[in-house]
């Protein structure tokens, strides 16, 4: 299982990657996509909205289930990955790269420090 060291994680299996001091990409982890199975649809209709941490920002549909997506930190959803409309399977093949889900502007960048680091996330799923 791939757990990149430079990312932060949630107990709900989302990851966050800082782009700069106030922007980040968010997606689901390799563990989450493997548990879900083949992802066939992504529904994220929160672009432009400011949401609190742990708020549902969308859903991901796999062959066997639909799962909510939770924002790891408070912020404004600035962009939804447009490629996922036509290629949701990128979440399965490249969850930490081309399979990112949203780009946000964080309300407080320091909140990222309260999330799990790679070692703690590995213990959670290991």
From TrEMBL:
Its cofactor is (R)-lipoate. InterPro entries: 2-oxoA_DH_lipoyl-BS (IPR003016), Biotin_lipoyl (IPR000089), GCV_H (IPR002930), GCV_H/Fam206 (IPR033753), GCV_H_sub (IPR017453), Single_hybrid_motif (IPR011053). Residues 23-105 form the Lipoyl-binding domain. Belongs to the GcvH family. It comes from the Bacteria. The modification N6-lipoyllysine is found at residue 64. It comes from Ilyomonas limi. GO terms for biological process: glycine decarboxylation via glycine cleavage system; protein lipoylation. The glycine cleavage system catalyzes the degradation of glycine. The H protein shuttles the methylamine group of glycine from the P protein to the T protein. NCBIfam families: gcvH (TIGR00527), PRK01202.1 (NF002270). The keyword Metal-binding does not apply. Binds 1 lipoyl cofactor covalently. This is Glycine cleavage system H protein. Keywords: Lipoyl. The keyword Cell membrane does not apply. SUPFAM superfamilies: Single hybrid motif. The lineage of its organism: Bacteria, Pseudomonadati, Bacteroidota, Chitinophagia, Chitinophagales.
């Amino acid at each position: 299982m791939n757990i990149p060291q430079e990312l932060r994680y949630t107990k709900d299996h989302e990851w966050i990657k800082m782009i700069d001091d106030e922007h980040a990409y968010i997606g689901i982890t390799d563990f989450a996509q493997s548990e879900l199975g083949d992802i066939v649809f992504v529904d994220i209709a929160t672009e432009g909205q400011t949401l609190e941490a742990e708020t549902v920002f969308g859903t991901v549909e796999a062959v066997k289930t639909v799962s909510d997506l939770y924002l790891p930190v408070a912020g404004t959803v600035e962009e939804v990955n447009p490629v996922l409309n036509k290629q949701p399977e990128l979440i399965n093949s490249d969850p930490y790269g081309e399979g990112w889900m949203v780009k946000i502007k964080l309300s407080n960048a320091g909140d990222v420090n309260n999330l799990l680091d790679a070692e703690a996330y590995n213990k959670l799923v290991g």
